[in-house]
Amino acid sequence: MHSTWKTCIVAALAAWLLAACGGGSSGEIFIPAAGNGSGSGIPPLSRPPVETFTDNSPAGDSVTQSWLKDAYHTLPPVGDADEAYQNASLAAWADEILRLTNLERANSGLAPLRRSRHLDYLAQAHARDMGLRDYFDHTARDYGLSPFDRMDAVRTAYYNTAGENIAAGQHSPAQVVTAWMGSPGHRANILNGSFTHIGIGIYYDSGAGPFAEQWVQLFAGFRDDPDTGNWLLP
Question: Cα angle at 83 between 11 and 128, to 5 degrees?
Fold first, then answer.
């Protein structure tokens, strides 16, 4: 059982970058977690096997090539019912994150976010990378790639605005959405009317990492349907 959780946010609009992590000199929020239930109406967690990080990139690769080989292209095979998630229960948790997020938007009179499988892959790659390499940051450790750098590495679909919420250690979709909604910066991302699409990443670290659960929401406002763009698949 993990006794703490944390959340952080980064958002960008056009060329402007805003980082807003409240609470304490570290710029991160640490609050005791409550309970470990999965929430009602969704399956309980089926814990996946332990994974370890593998460095697949030779020394001559660029940081983007290294990230693609080590984090993005090592996702589970996509195209089945679980997509890039570790198993069906975690895929269902991602669906619940979408439902709860759009419920919050509906309560504020906003249009629902549409799910993008390509944003899912990006969000899941970052959640998994954080879990496997035991860090918590919007910037991919060692590669130095921001959420926007990682988007640029795999997509050609034009976006007007984008943002990311991350969290670690919450034990259910309801718990993490409640945490995000309780933080002004995270709430602003969830209720941003400029965002049209969302990707959701959930990674469960069955090893000895500091936090079992890693959560990512990747938001974007696209001019056109993003799934018609030329995306690089995992």
Answer: 50
